[in-house]
């Protein structure tokens, strides 16, 4: 199925969870926030959150600065 991840189109297997997607794309999970279709998904839900065709996924890494 096709998803939009950080503005780019990606093909993933049907039934892929958010946690699996992050692992497959080598995203760090510490200090990371994820929104699906403009709604934040709590980290505790990533393993059970099944993605569907056409969803928009935005992955944000928190960065400290000064």
UniProtKB/TrEMBL annotation:
Q: Which Pfam families match?
A: ThiS
InterPro entries referenced in this protein's UniProt entry, alphabetically = Beta-grasp_dom_sf, Mopterin_synth/thiamin_S_b, Thi_S, ThiS/MoaD-like
Full protein name: Sulfur carrier protein ThiS
């Amino acid at each position: 199925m096709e998803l939009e991840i950080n503005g780019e189109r990606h093909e993933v297997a049907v039934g892929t969870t958010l946690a699996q997607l992050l692992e497959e794309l080598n995203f760090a999970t510490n200090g990371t926030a994820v929104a699906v279709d403009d709604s934040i998904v709590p980290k505790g839900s990533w393993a059970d959150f099944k993605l569907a065709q056409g969803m928009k996924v935005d992955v944000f890494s928190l960065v400290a600065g000064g």
